[in-house]
Design brief:
The relative contact order is 0.10. The two termini are 34 Å apart. The longest helix has 22 residues. With 265 residues, the chain is of the alpha/beta class. The protein folds into two domains: 155 residues, Rossmann fold; 90 residues, ProC C-terminal domain-like fold. Strands 3-2-1-4-5-6-7-8 form an eight-stranded mixed beta sheet. Helix 8 packs across helix 9. It contains twelve helices and eight strands.
Length: 265
């Protein structure tokens, strides 16, 4: 892979993307130009061979792919800064929540292909669930972007109208599942285990549960039925959780997150 990638707004998500792609073995650190205003936060990455900048215009120089990973409130400022510098032969990948392709395109001087992508921070360990979308006229670029994100997890091509939903389920979803694991570990701590061993047990159990679904291509209830015997401790625990609104709270959290994502820009 010879492409040079500029990541504008190299915070947690942007850095996770760069690290994950390098970990895949397909990219090398010197193929990444990482840019953020507080450049001191990138010094450790500079020592590993990444190119670091605090000037976005300098960062995109020589880059084939420009990844925009700033907060929604900052994207207009960034586009104003870069609009005369971005040439038509570049490819823009926007990781910015709630900002539509048309809203980005209209602020640029040249018509540049734009693809939206919504990964999550598990991209750093190549376990992201990334959704990507673009306009029909730029669909030929989807394969390039899909190939990139396939190196760091699973990728799904969706229509742009579903990107906000993807943000809530996949990007915010990392935090939701982490909170569930944290709760399980606290339960383990309360019944018998020291905190570190309870957390390890809870995390591995969650990993096993997810792996069962992905490997067997089964529905969660099919796997639940295998461990719930009549009058048993599993069904007793599940029913207690449901009586206290576990599923309802989780569903509501995702829908509220999606509503919030619509209004970030």
């Amino acid at each position: 892979m010879q492409n040079k990638v500029a990541i504008i707004g190299a915070g947690n998500l942007g850095i996770s993307l760069a690290k994950g792609l390098v970990e895949s073995g397909v990219y090398k650190p010197n193929q990444f130009n990482l840019s953020r205003r507080r450049i001191k936060k990138l010094q450790d990455l500079q020592s590993l061979g990444y190119n670091v900048f605090n000037n976005n215009t300098d960062a995109i120089h020589g880059a084939d792919v420009i990844v925009i990973a700033v907060l929604p409130q900052k994207i207009n400022e960034v586009l104003e800064e870069l609009k005369t510098t971005i040439k038509p032969n570049k490819l823009i990948i926007s990781l910015v929540s709630g900002v539509e392709i048309e809203e980005i395109s209209t602020q640029l001087i040249n018509e540049v292909p734009i693809v939206r992508a919504m990964p999550n921070t598990a991209i750093a360990i190549r376990e992201s669930m990334t959704c990507i979308a673009t306009k029909n006229k730029w669909k030929d670029n989807l394969e390039i972007v899909k190939d990139m994100f396939d190196h760091v997890g699973e990728t799904a091509v969706i229509i742009e109208e579903k990107m906000t939903s993807a943000t809530a389920l996949c990007a915010c979803g990392i935090a939701f599942f982490l909170r569930a694991i944290r709760a399980a570990s606290q339960g383990g701590n309360e019944i018998d285990f020291h905190a570190p061993e309870a957390l390890k047990m809870a995390a591995q159990t969650a990993k096993g549960a997810a792996s069962l679904l992905l490997k067997n291509n089964t529905h969660p209830e099919d796997e639940i039925d295998k461990v719930t015997s009549p009058k048993g401790c599993t069904i007793a625990g599940l029913n207690e959780m449901e009586h206290n609104g576990f599923s309802s709270a989780f569903i509501k959290g995702i829908t509220v997150s999606a509503d919030k994502a619509k209004n970030l820009y």
